[in-house]
Amino acid sequence: MSSFEKIQAAAKRLQGHARVTPILSSPFLDEIAGRRVLVKAECLQHTGSFKFRGGWAAVSALSDAERKKGVIAYSSGNHAQGVAAAAKAHGVQAVILMPADAPQLKIANTRALGAEVVLYDRAGGENRDAIGHQLAADRGLILIKPYDEPEVIAGQGTTGLEIAKQAAADGVTQADVLVCCGGGGLTSGVALALEGVAPGLRVRPVEPEGFDDVARSLQSGEIQSNAEISGSICDAILTPAPGQLTFPVLKRLCGPGIVVSEDEALRAMALAFLRLKIVVEPGGAVALAAALFHPEEFKGQAVIALATGGNVYAALYQQALLRYA
Amino acid sequence: MSSFEKIQAAAKRLQGHARVTPILSSPFLDEIAGRRVLVKAECLQHTGSFKFRGGWAAVSALSDAERKKGVIAYSSGNHAQGVAAAAKAHGVQAVILMPADAPQLKIANTRALGAEVVLYDRAGGENRDAIGHQLAADRGLILIKPYDEPEVIAGQGTTGLEIAKQAAADGVTQADVLVCCGGGGLTSGVALALEGVAPGLRVRPVEPEGFDDVARSLQSGEIQSNAEISGSICDAILTPAPGQLTFPVLKRLCGPGIVVSEDEALRAMALAFLRLKIVVEPGGAVALAAALFHPEEFKGQAVIALATGGNVYAALYQQALLRYA
Predict the structure, then answer these.
(1) Which residues in B38-58 are b (16+ Cβ under 10 Å) and which e?
(2) What DSSP string describes B24-80?
(3) What are A278's strand-pairing partners?
(4) Which of A38, A115, B68, B119 is the one with CA 20 to 30 A from B164?
């Protein structure tokens, strides 16, 4: 099965389970950006982020024997909740390995969704891949990696199928599609989907300053790493480096990466509050920030931005409103 | 043309212009309510509230000769923005009469949408009907009333057509539908739509304490007024009394009214932030508040609540988060 066929198959399994999230827009945002801005509001997805799609795709692809074993995932929070919710709906046990400095809200939500949460010390250098593999081996669990995993990429890619259809209905068939990018699961999935159904839509990965591994990797043609993997408010998209599976796709299909500041992300959050009435977390707002504040990066009459998640704690959200709303 | 046929006709004129807003839900909210809670996120409508539907329906129903005259509307803010945006899209001049104590955000947005804003003193007892009619007469403008207006009721009623379809897709055909209620335009429109397409769905008007004219009117069988028409954070739904056109519909089709406190509205706003990732204003949150905090009012496995608007200023929103998120 090709990657595109995998996305189509995942879309069938997700039907009636994942939400078809709306495309939103506002003349006030169009004016700031100098062109139409279509925002795919994936923060309205179950569990508050697109990660539910990948979680559902991966869990629903397991054999009965595998489901009986249970699953394990490592995640700063959104993949955790996506896998936990999907596992619960399938009656599958879930263990989630989360960094101890992940937002408390994401940890609490993951537990409330029925998963067993195991914490590790991200800042102290503990390696989640190693811990995750060890736990999986010790307890006989199936590991669902956050991005370097074909079924997860396929699940996230279903977002791209919807974007193609919705953008066409809005009259947009030629545009850059800005995707908040961590390890590249969503970005590569959307790029593969658009390659199949909307070749006039080109993906551009967007990252926060200091965590621009994908932008640098695309520029150099080789996988580059981040110096740090914590310490940004954009916690959802802090990953060490693009994935082994995702990077070749990004390299083949995506335009240059775009880097935005944390302040730009906060401003985009405030504008999403004011103009779109959606709650977006910092890591989920970098694509909208690029659309609004980096107009020189784009050509044409429209740009599409994914608002990928809304799991932000209230105190940080209030800061964004206090400064920029 | 019957009221229901008017709604169907309005739905055709709105197609491709108004958004089909999603139904959202969260297991966390279901747990609080003790049943499934389906939230129709009409705060994601253009201009941030359902009022865009009525504005579009009314402006699009005008003859060419009427459009040339221009329109006037009076509104605390959401109807203002809805009419202003619809008028702008149709190339029609709009004058909007707004209370001077309306949220600055709503006044500013209305102006930014190209309308001329005229302020009046609501708290001081100036009568907006009288001023509106006078201005309309003096300047030859077509008056679009906020709720006692057949085309506006029809436009708001299109929300009910969507609810019926979306709820059925979610397996819900028997439930109370909670509607944030001011003058009753949306409430009566939705009730008329559901009467036509989903008779198992019954509308219940929801109001804030101190402004429960509809609940008291339904109880007594006669139109009752509010002692005050300002002084609540639920500014969007403060009206003097149910309308002459809307009340007979409410009386015929709706279940008993429900009254919630301002604090409950703020808690519902915070929960919509945490669990649904939508921004809801106080007046737009009273229906969700009823669903969550007045479970004794309902029977059955599900309840449907309209989140009718999201035009809340940041400082008030921050208060809701500070207290309850």
Answers:
(1) bbbbbbbbbbbbbbbbbbbbb
(2) E--HHHHHHHTSEEEEEEGGGSGGGBTHHHHHHHHHHTS-HHHHHH-EEEE-SSHHH
(3) B278
(4) A38
Spatial distance between the Cα atoms of A245 and A185, rounded to a whole number of angstroms: 9
- Cβ atoms within 10 Å, residue B33: 19
- CB pair distance less than 8 Å for B314 and A270: yes
> A317 CB near a chain B CB, below 8 Å?
yes
pLDDT at residue A22 is higher than 90: yes
End-to-end CA distance of chain B: 47
0.90 surpassed by complex ipTM:
yes
**Which pTM was predicted?**
0.96
Q: How far apart are CA A307 and CA A44, in angstroms?
A: 9
pLDDT above 80 for A34:
yes
- Between residues A223 and A127, the one the model is more confident about: A223
Listed by number, the residues of chain A in 109-138 with a beta carbon closer than 8 Å to a beta carbon of chain B are 109, 112-113
Q: Tokens 């101190």 — which residue?
A: B210
Which residue numbers in chain B have pLDDT < 50? none
User: d(Cα B244, Cα A152) in Å, to the nearest integer?
Assistant: 56
CA dihedral for B263, B264, B269, B275, sign (positive or negative): positive
Q: What is the set of domains in chain A, with CATH numbers?
A: 3-49+150-324 (3.40.50.1100), 52-143 (3.40.50.1100)
Question: Given CB atoms, is A316 within the 8 Å cutoff of chain B?
Answer: no
B303: helix, strand or coil: strand
Q: Tell me, what's the pLDDT at B254? A: 98
Quote the crossing angle between the two packed helices B150-169 and B51-60, to the nearest 10°. 130
